[in-house]
Amino acid sequence: MPKIERFLADEAATGAFGAELASVLVSGLVVTLSGDLGAGKTALVRAVLRALGHAGKVKSPTYALVEIYAISSLYLYHFDFYRFNDPDEWHEAGFREYFNPHSVCFVEWPEKAGGLLPAADIAIRLRIEGTGREIALEAGSEKGKRCLLGLISNPRSAPRPPLPQAGEG
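Request: output the structure for the sequence above.
Response:
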């Protein structure tokens, strides 16, 4: 399965990468986002939503657990399970219904949901690196593989620049 690694130097680079990612999304995807607090998970989802045409506010669903965005004929669900503690809440809220062939689900802190989530089509890992972010994407399904191959073949996708070394400015 393909894997993509990049260095996102700043918010503008995150926005540009979010636009690239938005261009290859297809209905039915489950995209997991892992990384420490402040690593840029919500910023990446915000960039994807902006690229898809959402002009409204994009906030972290930490307290609500899910934010719903209807963009044209696409339903994008943005989950944040950071404060998720009770598996009964999953069933009571009907979250399973959101994971369907007509939606795209972005899931922050997927490890907190344990075995309740469907397998990820694309797993994204963000890591703070100096003033920027290291991002790694890995396909977990054929659908995810096709999306990542689309990113790789995108002429706007440049190879990952080397990380700056200590003492370089």
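The helical segments are 11-22, 41-51, 87-93, 142-153.
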